[in-house]
Amino acid sequence: MPVVDVDPDELRDLTGHEEKSDDELIDDLFGLGLEFEGRTEEDDLQLEFAPDRLDRLSVEGIARSLRYQHGDDRGVYVPNTNDPGWTIEVEASVPDERPYVTGAVVRDVDLDEDALDSLIQLQEKLHATMGRKRAKGAIGIHDLTMLKGETVTEEGGELGKSITYRGIEPEGDRFVPLDSDAEMTPEEVLRAHETGETYADLVANYERYPAIYDDIGLFSFPPVINGRRTEVTTDSRDLFVELTGTDQWTIDHMCNIICYGLDARGAKIEEIEVRYPDETLVRPDFEVTEKIVTHERIETMLGVDLSAERVLDLLERSGLDAETGEIGDDASDSSARQTASDGELAYEVEIPPYRVDVLHPLDVVDDVGRAYGFNELEPRYPDVGTVGGRHDRSELEDAARELLVGLGFEDLLNFHMIGETENFERLRISPEDDVVGAAEPPTIKEPYSEDYTMFRTWALPSLLMVLENNTHRAYPQDLAEIGLAARADDDQNTGVAEHRTVAAVLARHDASYEDAKARLQATARNFDTDLATPATDHPTFIDGRAAEVVLDGDSVGVIGEVRPEVLVEHDLELPVAAFEFRLDALE
C-alpha cells in the first residue's frame, strides 16, 4: 500500500484549520481512509491509503479532501486555464513503444522547500503507482525560463513557442543529465549514470530512444532522466510539465493530478497544444465526466434511508456535483441502464478530472458512504436465513485426496509458480506441442527469479522436482498432488484459464506402467467413472509405455513410464511411473 509523508503544519496551512491538533488531524484522515503509520525523523505523518485515490498522493490532495470533509469546499472544482502559448510537436520518429505525450505550463508557483519536496514526492508516487514504475507513464518537470522554444508562426503571425518530441539513436545528441557534470549520450546515461542504470530496462529493447528537444537541444530523456539545464529549484516560478507514456488516458490523468496539486499552491495553469502527425490535442484535459446512480442503489448498498436533498448534500461534500432526474431509455450510462427501471429517481453526478478511481456507479455510492460516515452505519444481520456448506468441487477434491492417500500416495502441495525450464525443457516438451502439459503459459511480466517466471501448465514437473530434492530419502517414494494448473486464454476475462489437476508419481526399483495404471483404475472405479487407456506418444514418457487417460469418453490426461533422459536430468537413478489428469473428469 502507498505511504505518503505529510507535514502536519503544511496540512493545517492548506486546509485553513490551524486549530487542529495532530491527533485531531489523524482522526479526520482516518475518516478519509488514510491510516496513520507513524512519523518520520522530521516528525512528518506517515499515512497509508488504498491506491485507488491517487489524487491523495500529496499533501495538497489530502488537504483538498479534508476541506470537503469539513464542509469548507463543496462540489466540483475545475481550475481556470489560460490559452495555449506552448506546443509539443510530435515527430513520426517517436518510438512505437512510447508514442504518447501530454503536458501543461504552470506559472507563478511559489516553491519553498516544503512545496518542492511535496511536488517531487507526488511525481515519484505517481511514477510508482499509476505510471507502473515509469513504464506506463513518466513525468518530467522543468524550469520554463531555461527552455528556449522554437517560434511557432502562421499567416497571422507568431503563435507561441514549441518543443519537439522525437526518437533518436542511442548514441545520439549529448546532454548533461541531472546529478551529473558530464555530457553524455542517452546510451552513456544508461551505462554510467545511477538513475540511467536503474531505468535502463524500460528502453532496453527500443531501436530509437524517446527524447524532447527545444531550440538549444536535448533537455529530456524520458522515461529515464531530465537534463540539468532545466532543473527545478526553489527559485523556479514558471514550470513546464511533460509526460510521456504508452497510454494517452493514463498520462493525461497523471498530468491532471500534478496540475491540481500546483493549483492548490496558487499557481496558474496554462494549456498547451500537442500536435501529433494526424491530430492536435489541447492539454491539460479538465473535462468533467458523468456517472448516473440511482437513489435505490445508494440506499440499498448503504442500508440507510436518505432523502434526495441529503444525497445531493453528501455528493457535494465529496467534491462532486449532481442533479436529480429520472432514468429513461436515453440514459447514457450503461451501468445505470442495466440496474434501473424507467422513471426511477437517479442522480446525474459530475466527476472532477483528477478522480481516476470513479469507474462505476458503486464508486459514487462509496463516496456518499464516506461523506455520511461509515462509523454512523448501524450493523445488522441480514433478514435472509442461509445454511452454509462445502462447495461440490471442494468435496470432490477432498474425496480424491483421501482416496490417493488410501492408495499409498503421500499428499503434497507445491508452488503453482515455476520456471519455463522446469515446466517444459527438462520434460522434453514445448508450449507448441499437442500433448498434456504443453500449453501457452501465463507468464510474469517482471519476474524476480528465473525459477518463478510462469504459472505451471501441469503438476508433474513439480513432483519430479520433489523427487530430485529427496534422492537421499528412502525408497519407494509414491507422491501425489491435487493442485492448480493454468494456460493463457484470450477468451477469458482474466486472460488465463485455470483447472484442478491430479498428478502422481511412483519412484521405486520396480515402478511400471502397470502399477501406475492399477492405482489409476482404482481411482476411476471409486468415482464410478469408466477408464480407457489407448496408446499414445508423449515426449516425457518412454515410447510404447505411454497412454492417454480417457474418463467417460473424454481424453483428460496421460499415464506412462518416464523417459530415462528425463530421469537423468533430475538425478534420479530409479524408474518412475506417473499419471496426470483433470480433477473435474471425476465429477
Description:
- The protein has 587 residues and is an alpha+beta fold.
- The chain folds into 4 domains: 3-70, Phenylalanyl-tRNA Synthetase, Chain B, domain 1 (2-Layer Sandwich), CATH 3.30.56; 81-283, Phenylalanyl-tRNA Synthetase, Chain B, domain 3; 289-376, Phenylalanyl-tRNA Synthetase, Chain B, domain 1 (2-Layer Sandwich), CATH 3.30.56.10; 392-586, BirA Bifunctional Protein, domain 2 (2-Layer Sandwich).
- 28% of the residues lie in helices and 28% in strands.
- The longest helix has 16 residues, at 113-128.
- The chain is globular.
- It starts with a strand and ends in a 5-residue tail after the last strand.
Give the number of DSSP strands: 26
Weakly predicted, low-confidence segments: 334-339
Q: Output the CATH class name of the largest domain.
A: Alpha Beta
Global outline: globular
- What is the count of DSSP helices, taking H or I runs of 4+ residues? 16
Classified in CATH, the superfamily of the largest domain is: Phenylalanyl-trna Synthetase, Chain B, domain 3
**Helical residues, percent:** 25-40%
Which percent range describes the beta-strand content?
25-35%
CATH topology-level name of the largest domain:
Phenylalanyl-tRNA Synthetase, Chain B, domain 3
**Classification by helices and strands:** alpha+beta
Taking Cα atoms only, what radius of gyration do you get, to the nearest Å?
A: 31 Å
Main sheet overview: 11 strands, mixed
In the CATH classification, which architecture of the largest domain applies? 3-Layer(bba) Sandwich
For the residues shown, what is the average pLDDT? Answer: 93
Distance between the termini: 41 Å
| Total domain count | 4
